[in-house]
Amino acid sequence: MGLPLELQDQVRRIAPIVLAAEQVLPVPEVFHGLLPGGGLQRGWTTRVDGGASARALAWALLSDVTTSGGWIAVVDVSGISLGAAREVGIAIERVLVVTTPDSATWSATIGALIGAVDAIVFGSPNHRVQQSEYRRMASRCRERGTVLVELAPDPVQRRSNRFTRDDGNHSGGQLQYDVSFTVDPVQWQGLGRGHGRVQARGLDVVATGRRTPGAGRRGRFELPAADGTLKVVEAQKLRVQM
Amino acid sequence: MTEVPRIAAVWCQDWPVVAAGISPDEAGAVLHANRVVASSLAARSMGVVRGLRRREAQGRCPELVIADRDMASEARAFESIAAAIEAFTPRLELTQPGTCVFPTRGPSRYFGGDQLLVEKIMGAVDEVLDGRTTCSVGVADGVFAARVAARSRSAGPCIIEPGASPEFLAPLPITVLDRPDLTDVLWRLGICTLGAFAALEAADVLGRFAREGLEAHNLASGMDERPADVSDPPENMAVSLVLEPPVDRIDQAAFAARHLALELQEKLQRRGAACSRVTVEAESEHGERFVRGWRHEGALSVAAMTDRVRWQLDGWLNASPTIRPSGGLSLLVLRPENLIPASGRQLGFWGGETEADQRAGRAVARLEALVGVDNVQVAEWQGGREADDMVRLLPAGTIDLSERQLRIFDDRPWPGKLPSPSPVELFSEQQVDVVDEAAQSVSVSGRGELSGAPAHVSRDGTNWKHIVGWAGPWLLDERWWDPDRARRRARFQLVDEDGEAILVYVEQGKWWLAGTY
Questions:
Q1: What are all long-range contacts of A162-169, with beta carbons under 8 Å and residues at least 24 apart?
Q2: What is the pTM of this model?
Q3: Which B residues 385-424 touch A at CB under 8 Å?
Q4: Do the chains contact at B419 and A195, CB–CB below 8 Å?
């Protein structure tokens, strides 16, 4: 058994030498061209935007985390489909699904999960969250090495649900994301007019944010491809438009 | 050979049925995992026996009243019986709701022999039972023989003379050991009675069937499963929790129970020990003390211990007013007894429970307090034809997170399931409109013929989208025998002009949104 757990935790946090690989959550190889450093740095805050397909991207990004023994938590994501998550490679036995009953417990819930799981996927909260609170969350993540993944609300729902405030107070403007992924557009393969079936989902993904130099990076992926695997079609750095 | 203590076992017949509130002359059965675990006398006379499937049971007895098994309510109902027996002996141990055992040495001497003691106890228990069922008492050497003796009668005493237990057990079929894996092999080897099994050399049994075989062999020879640990465990092995403010709700008590069980398990693990008996002690804010022991065949896991502590606390808090604590519980103590060496759990290739699993487990405990037990869930794969069937979400608190890592997914195909990819976002109860070029709602006939090709789709009735690709219908007709869960629908995949792919279905002439890809 060795040291008590609390002590082990302390040792890890004050240890002077940190191996670079320990500080990066593994991602499937196809995303290496998209992410600076080839993985999700522990402690990053990220956002995935682009409707339902953004979820597919989030699951695919996190699949290697769960298969290598890590845990992810999913907080307040409506209509979660873990069957689809499993198809892109998530080990669903290491997924915690948490629902917060009211807005008062939201930040305490995220706080309890930071440091306990390797990545937290959360739906954008419907209530207003203080900017200082976001900053506190982000700095705690950096300290404890948990990656935050915010799922931006589905644009279709945002339009239809007029009670959701979308006036710039939204968290998108509040948190400085380390990496922000935008999925656009989506091409579907395999479906004809009255025949075939949905087989492959082609995604153009743009990664921007503090951690990506210049205008960011763009990649075209198939998640999944027609044979059920994840594929990268091309990945490139974007030039800064003068 | 160590002396085997005299034990009495009290067994209430068909306890799960009684606890479910089914009267003995009513045909009723209690089911767990679609199998009958207990049935009432009336049901048994019509052929409803243990192990039948629900459908077979209903086939044999159409008016059968069916209840799902609820161990907590069984334990709660049994508390009044336990309290009645406790008037005769303080050393009562519950093995499972409906059965309890106690050593008879002290009380027998006091009441003038086993026979008199048993009669007194049966009188007291029958009074509490009030005709709901019958109880039987077996007295023999060792817990196993006493339990078998009690179960050999449907009512009345069965007293085996000291030293006569092996002869009593010898002619019984090997299946009373209740270890299906082992007895199945023995049966095929031609060893059909406990006597034949006991006649084998213990060393040979150990060599062939390892530890489990030896334990069973001990039972068959009329000894106890393992020699009782005569030395009391050191006092500091007990764990306690002061409840401030006092607790009188079962959900709060259950939370404390889980916490204590985890702490005890950790303490035991550090010594390389496990316990097969745990004593639950509680003190109310007015100083009343409640003590009850629970025993288990093997070592108690955290989940098993939590369950038993929760049942017990539930039983006390919801007992009849005469025996109920007059205030909230203010102190909880778990005392491990019968320490045995931990034989260890089979760990995964990379070391089983990792640090990450432990951290997640601790986070679950904290979150349960924060958002409620039902709002922290883990997924369990169960497979199914529709995306919302494939994975079941269960409250994380009800599952031993470290043990379920070892499960393997059953990946056999589901005929009728749409091929992957599955929708990533699921919807329920959301209607959509799908129309053809002539703006007529598309309908599907019973044979799967469409009234027209889908051309436009709208989620809210106003915002119409042009359909650029579609496929279907894939017909699904499942669970037609169960009106609540039956599904008869035709599924379609649609891609609209914005590049959004959705899964929709027609059921009862209406279009519904199932999910978005």
A1: A164/A126, A165/A128, A169/A128
A2: 0.58
A3: 387-388, 390-391, 393, 396, 404-405, 407, 418-424
A4: no
